[in-house]
Design goal:
single chain; 433 residues; alpha+beta; Heat Shock Protein 90; 2 domains; five-stranded mixed β-sheet; 12 helices; elongated
Length: 433
């Protein structure tokens, strides 16, 4: 019998494989597919053939079906908990649709195909045509899910995944109870259909909650980033206050030097001149490109580096003082790049290995920023190692966002205990300088 029906079995196997992959592509997105899916398809095909052909108990059949579905989910690059919950959800949806299909054929053929003990495998009465109709109905269900799902990548806490699994599990239990203890009438059909709609709504609720959590998370990160920018502006204000105070005090210093000269005491005048110059050097910007944001942030980084034993080289050359990039955006990009480099350099245990290179230059049309720093490990992790990483981790994301805004680009190279972050920002002549 099996050789005779082999083309039918292979046809159904291909349809089921396409449908399962279509489902996961709808909820995970095509971009999440792994480059090589062949191995997962082969595993799915073998398990599906086993499920269609061989006689098994209900428990064994369910286990094989779940493994088959999870094998297809494995061909996507998403979190394991996301794979598990959507694999179970697909199994529940397919079960509900199968009962609906068997009910339809039971009504047409006047034979109860919905009995759980009516046989196994390909030879079960109504089994194959029930699967074929199930696939047809499931395509419509997946289209509804496709419209609902926004393919969010934000991960919820594990407890929410557990809560959402309650509905599919209860649905399976109730279906089995209804199949054993109730009459296969119109009310049975409505109940099964209701469970199907309920599980489709789970996808909608799940996606909506992810959307809400993602919005709240981004709002918190944005607030933290604004606080970070306020701190950068505070550094600039502090530098100018120091300069203003030194300029005011210099008037008194010159009066004292003048008096030393009148009294023919050049040694005292020379000593006071050196002391005054040191005070001015400490208070004045150590970087003077002529651009306020660059001067303030790089100067602050040099001060932090000196305090932490980090050797910093600077190569700064602006085509002109006019940098047509919004100051707030430049603070986000340069501030985050410098902050990340400083934090990574602090973790280098050997003091002589702590090193940073700050390279900034501009042309008539773009600003080029390159920050190179030594790192403790052989290759750098792009996940933040700071306290509260869920807040600090937005740094690289914000840099990338602003690069997209100006049509620029960010490149990261990591290896040989060095981290190299390069950014190109084309000028927007409407932005403030």
């Amino acid at each position: 019998m099996i050789p005779y029906n082999l083309p039918v079995i292979l046809g159904v196997l291909l349809v089921m494989g396409f449908q399962t992959n279509f489902f996961f592509g709808s909820v995970f997105g095509k971009s999440a597919r792994k480059p090589n899916q062949t191995l997962y398809f082969i595993i799915y095909g073998l398990l599906c053939f086993l499920y269609l052909v061989f006689e098994m108990s209900s428990v064994s059949s369910s286990a094989v079906a779940l493994l088959m579905i999870f094998a297809m989910a494995g061909s996507y690059q998403v979190e394991i908990k996301t794979k598990v919950i959507f694999s179970i959800l697909y199994a529940v949806l397919m079960t509900l649709v199968s009962f609906i299909s068997l009910y339809i054929f039971s009504a047409i053929d006047s034979v109860d195909y919905t009995r759980l003990d009516s046989g196994n495998g390909f030879e079960r009465p109504g089994f194959m045509k029930g699967i074929i109709l199930s696939c047809i109905i499931m395509f419509a269900v997946i289209q509804v899910i496709r419209l609902i799902s926004k393919r969010r990548s934000f991960a919820l806490p594990y407890r929410y995944y557990i809560f959402f699994l309650i509905v599919p599990f209860i649905s399976i239990y109730q279906i089995n109870v209804l199949t054993v203890s109730s009459n296969k009438d119109i009310y049975y059909f409505i109940a099964i259909l209701g469970f199907l709609l309920l599980n489709v709504m789970v996808v909608y609720i799940f996606d909506t909650i992810i959307d809400k959590f993602q919005f709240m998370h981004e709002k918190t990160q944005l607030q933290h980033q604004m606080n970070y920018q306020d701190a950068n502006y505070e550094k600039t204000v502090h530098s100018f206050k120091s300069i203003k105070r030194i300029i005011h005090d210099n008037h008194q210093q010159f009066l004292y030097i003048e008096e030393c000269i009148r009294r023919e005491d050049p040694a005292a005048a020379l000593a006071h001149i050196k002391l005054t110059l040191n005070k001015v050097e400490d208070a004045y910007q150590r970087v003077n490109t002529g651009h306020l944001v660059i001067d303030a942030l790089v100067t602050n980084t040099l001060n932090i580096g000196q305090a932490n034993g980090i050797r910093i080289d600077t190569r700064l050359r602006l085509h002109s003082q006019a940098v047509h990039i919004d100051r707030y955006d430049l603070c986000v990009v340069l501030g985050n790049m410098l902050d990340n480099a400083i934090e990574a350099s602090k973790k280098v245990k050997v003091a002589e290995d702590r090193y940073m290179l700050i390279q900034i230059h501009s042309s008539e049309s773009a600003l080029f920023i390159r920050i190179l720093n030594r790192i403790a490990q052989e290759t750098a992790s792009l996940h933040s190692q700071k306290p509260d990483p869920e807040y600090h981790g937005i740094g690289l994301t914000n840099i990338s966002r602003i690069c997209d805004k100006y049509g620029g680009n960010m490149t990261i190279e990591s290896g040989h205990k060095e981290f190299n972050n390069m950014v190109v920002l084309p000028f927007s002549h409407e932005a403030s300088i």
